[in-house]
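Quick one, probably user error.
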């Protein structure tokens, strides 16, 4: 096992992903390539579903936050596993619709839905809008009235929690582009406006405090604040809102230094706080929605590259360059995210070579990691970066006119292409 159970080494000394030889995969599909073990994604969905049901009751629903990894087959997998989904743009909604995802189980997010997004989502019959702000409330209400429908909504609330994760992925602070702060009184204001608005029915509240969080405490604090706010709404407005969406954010093990979260136990811990708070405030347990992205898909993934140059600069460092980089994985450049990497065709050799992993783009910041201990590489080796299932393909670009890699799904030892490799022709397809 390397970091997660589905990464291992076979008798030939090759990395295996879900039991499949990574060197064979690189030969068959070329590099760079995203590989995903579908069994792991399904297993994670089941953990969330079962724990949500066990701890919050049969009507609890985990949503897959599809910004983490979005392509048609992914929505089919989520649908098949009985999940809802969180979509955040017209493009995600369109992809979900193409996959035949049940519209009533879609929660439509985003802090700046355009008029077109709102109309498209209503055309599709999206079950729930998570309304971010007063202007959006007015726009959703107006469009629903024009259509003579009542749109179910939640309101995005900022509980004022700092979850101690990377600054760029914190979202629950009062000073945030998302939502309405309880502390400033704006949350209560938008609740009242929603209750008075025509064409919408306010089902409940949503919060999301951030991402890649390992401690339960900030989730528990946020949940407690949200339940107390539900009780305040009951007191001030005389209504009992029936749904509480607690967002996503549980962390994932990227390296041997990260803890492995027991997700079922974490959901149990959060449930205990929510239930205790409901009891204390004498309000009924609302229907609980969870919204994980990273923890459903990150561990399932690995990216395979081919090693090109190995440049040793005496007294400085060793640059190992691969045939991908920040266009397929911008996370080190953006957040200095740590990964585990290894030479897939000599995975049983000791990892005694300290490398800076560089991409092939024309800028120095194009790195996949620094101070990474790998097997001594030579040109032509297959380099694997593990745990790349979340926010890699989803954040990929064509910088330097590099075609995006394919996404290969593995299920029970068999591989299939879920997204084909982009071609140079694809790159000029939109050019006039
Ligand atoms: N719900 C909402 C409203 C969100 O904004 C997000 C993530 C999630 C759920 C899912 O959170 P997760 O379970 O994946 O932590 N690109 C960054 C992560 C940005 C997260 C954005 N929002 C990264 O690569 O680390």
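Nope, works fine. Designed sequence:
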């Amino acid at each position: 096992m390397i970091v997660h159970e589905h990464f291992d080494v076979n008798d030939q000394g090759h990395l295996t992903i879900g039991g499949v030889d990574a060197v064979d995969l690189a030969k068959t599909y070329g590099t760079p390539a995203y590989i995903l073990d579908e069994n792991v994604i399904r297993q994670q969905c089941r953990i969330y579903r079962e724990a949500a049901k066990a701890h919050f009751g049969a009507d609890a629903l985990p949503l897959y936050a599809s910004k983490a990894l979005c392509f048609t087959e992914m929505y089919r997998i989520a649908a098949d596993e009985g999940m809802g989904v969180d979509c955040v743009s017209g493009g995600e909604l369109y992809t979900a619709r193409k996959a035949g995802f049940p519209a009533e189980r879609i929660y439509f997010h985003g802090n700046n839905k355009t008029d077109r997004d709102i109309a498209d989502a209503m055309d599709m019959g999206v079950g729930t809008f998570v309304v971010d702000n007063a202007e959006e409330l007015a726009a959703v209400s107006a469009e629903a009235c024009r259509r003579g429908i009542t749109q179910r909504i939640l309101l995005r609330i900022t509980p004022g929690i700092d979850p101690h994760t990377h600054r760029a992925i914190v979202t629950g602070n009062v000073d945030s582009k998302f939502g309405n702060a309880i502390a400033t009184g704006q949350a209560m204001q938008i609740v009242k406006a929603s209750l008075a608005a025509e064409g919408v029915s306010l089902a409940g509240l949503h919060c999301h405090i951030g991402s890649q969080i390992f401690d339960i405490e900030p989730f528990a604090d946020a949940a407690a604040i949200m339940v107390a706010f539900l009780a305040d709404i009951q007191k001030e407005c005389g209504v009992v809102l029936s749904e509480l969406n607690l967002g996503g954010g549980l962390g994932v093990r990227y390296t041997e230094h990260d803890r492995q979260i027991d997700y079922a136990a974490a959901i149990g811990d959060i449930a205990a706080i929510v239930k205790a708070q409901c009891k204390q405030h004498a309000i009924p347990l609302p229907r609980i929605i969870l919204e994980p992205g990273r923890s459903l898909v990150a561990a399932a993934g690995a990216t395979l590259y081919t090693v090109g140059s190995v440049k040793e600069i005496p007294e400085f460092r060793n640059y190992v360059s691969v045939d991908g980089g920040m266009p397929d994985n911008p996370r080190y450049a953006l957040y200095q995210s740590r990964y585990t990497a290894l030479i897939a065709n000599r995975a049983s050799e000791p990892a005694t070579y300290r490398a800076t992993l560089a991409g092939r783009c024309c800028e120095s910041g194009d790195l996949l990691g620094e101070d990474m201990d790998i097997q001594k590489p030579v040109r032509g080796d297959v380099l694997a970066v593990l745990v790349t299932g979340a926010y890699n393909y989803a954040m990929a670009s064509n910088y330097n006119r590099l075609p995006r890699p394919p996404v290969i799904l593995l299920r029970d030892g068999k591989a299939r292409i879920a997204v084909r490799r982009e071609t140079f022709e694809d790159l000029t397809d939109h050019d006039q």
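The longest strand covers residues 301-312.
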